[in-house]
Amino acid sequence: MSTPREQPWRDPTGTETQGRLVVLTRNPIAEAIGVIASTAGRDVVVVDEDEEGRGLAAVQSVGLREGDAVVLCDHDAPDAPAVLRHALASPASYVAMMASRRRSEGLLAELAEEGASGLDKLRVPAGLDTGGKTAGEIALSVVAEVVATAYGRSGRPMREL
């Protein structure tokens, strides 16, 4: 009788768990992140922000923990700055925001000036440099960065390793 071969995509001990991917606000990129991350085996929580800016309360109710990734897909959401500060101060392992490089520089300067904690885990703009333009392509670059970060990898092409 032969022993079953270990599959490279399985954790033979059954102890490996992946953090959740928490996404604020529902939009085409957030929806695509949800599909791609779910396919990759991640639990996804998409937080809708209402007109009264209750995104922070919704994210707080999730109870962010180590290994979780938080992605703000709408930097114009009323609660976005508060959600970002909360996520950075939480045990979440990855925090990112979709933003232009120009907006990113201003945001980083503002957060540093405020003495925000956890800036070392902030990725802004979110995602790897794939050149993607569509919601799905952008989402793919974000999920790829989440996975690479979770495993302590660079996200560089395999042929360069």
Q: First CA to last CA: what distance?
A: 38 Å
Main sheet: which strands, in order across?
Answer: 2-1-3-4-5
How do the SSEs run, as a string of H and E? EHEHEHEHEH
Specify the overall morphology.
globular
Low-confidence stretches: none
What is the element layout, followed by pairings?
Elements: E1 21-24, H1 28-39, E2 44-47, H2 55-62, E3 69-72, H3 80-89, E4 94-97, H4 101-114, E5 122-123, H5 135-150
Parallel strand pairs: 1-2, 1-3, 3-4, 4-5
Helix pairs in contact: 1-5, 2-3
Structure description:
The chain has 161 residues and is α/β, with parallel strands linked by helices. It has one domain: Rossmann fold (3-Layer(aba) Sandwich). The chain has 5 helices and 5 strands, in the order βαβαβαβαβα. It has helices at residues 28-39, 55-62, 80-89, 101-114, 135-150, and strands at 21-24, 44-47, 69-72, 94-97, 122-123. It has a 5-stranded parallel sheet with strand order 2-1-3-4-5, with helices on both faces. Strand 1, helix 1 and strand 2 (44-47) form a beta-alpha-beta unit.
Quick description:
This protein has 161 residues and is α/β, with parallel strands linked by helices. It has helices at residues 28-39, 55-62, 80-89, 101-114, 135-150, and strands at residues 21-24, 44-47, 69-72, 94-97, 122-123.
Question: Which descriptors apply to this entry?
Answer:
XdhC_Rossmann_dom, five-stranded parallel sheet, single chain, 37% helix, alpha/beta, MoCofactor_Util/Proc, 5 helices, 161 residues, XdhC Rossmann domain-containing protein, Rossmann fold
